[in-house]
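Example 3.
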Amino acid sequence: MDKQKVIVVLLLITIVFSLISIIVTFGVDIPMIQQRVITYYPAGEGSASLVVLPPGTGGNLG
Amino acid sequence: MNSSQVLTLVAVFAIALAAFNLIITMDKVGKLTGYAGQYGNATLVVEQTINVSFVVGNDSANWSTGSVNPGTYGVLWTNGTNLGVTGFQPVIYPLKIENYGNVNATINLSSNATAAQFIGGGNVQLPNPFFRWRITNSEPSSCGGVLGVPTYTDVTVGSPGIRVCNNLSHIGYPTRNTLAVDLEIGIPGNAQGGKAVLLTLYVASIE
């Protein structure tokens, strides 16, 4: 293998490492981006209730 | 293309890619909050968990059964006061919303019914029904931001409701992470039958 081929191989390795580094860097950033998105989600329900009888009929206390 | 030109092309591409990588890396490094001085730093990330819900036992208000005095208008509150009615059970506690998580949260609230849908009744002689809520700190300083509905206001219907607190604290558990939801219900004398409404709690991370 001549000198030029060795250099080409080393440069290709450098390129691969750079690509891996870029992918990893972006990959780390993805959760940070997602965290900034405001999304509401339902977290439970409360309730109010009563029974109204016709006027004048009173009602029970139970 | 001879071998020298190929080598040059590959070298230029490698340099360009490395420069791009360097720019991205420097950009990320600039966002790091850690600062290394003469002391060593250890960094860890604690997963953020939003966990907000109505407090069990304080998630409903039930006035039971009663009637409105003939030809009049009744009002029920969640502070134990009933006015112009007969027989309704007083509700002495508001509904409560508590932040059980480890991160502050934005809180919205919505109703599945308007006053007309929930209570009904009313006409020219009798005022229309009303259904209002008021959200305050059940424990002092629970809402570290702005309380969106600090006085009695007509309820909001539909998702995601109205923002009632933009920063409900989780800190100081269990002493200051709880909101109170008071209700005020106006019942015309001609509104009769069983009445029920659902209040839905929506949460999100703080802005």
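Chain A has one helix and one strand. Residues 14 and 20 of chain A are 10 Å apart (CA to CA).
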